[in-house]
Design brief:
The protein is an alpha+beta fold. The chain is built from three helices and five strands, in the order H-E-E-H-E-E-E-H. Strands 2-1-5-4-3 form a five-stranded antiparallel beta sheet, sandwiched between helices. The model has no long low-confidence stretch (mean pLDDT about 90). A hairpin with a 2-residue loop joins strand 3 and strand 4.
Length: about 120
Amino acid sequence: MQDILQELNRVRGVGGSLLFNADGLLMESALRSDVDEQALAAAAGTLIAQATRMCESLGIGKQGAFSASGDQGGVLVCAAGAGSLLILLDPSANLALLRLELKPFADRITQRLTL
């Protein structure tokens, strides 16, 4: 899994990545900064749970991805099989392009998690 995350980190606009499960537990990490990976995975797990409930209550289907941005970067979280993939975004990241480029990585992770 580490090889996929390292390859993902080479995509323009990506500042690091990690994989976590539905309980918010860290599965794998390739972050470039000194972030508390366990705490980040736990917080992202809580956000996924909230986003899932919101999508269900609105009747808009299964939660697939969400993003948040700040003035110095952002974060993109998407489903990846039994896990979720969190990507730290550089301030110059093109979110629309990254969403397209992310799909093959999420598919590869999904495939590995189902083996």
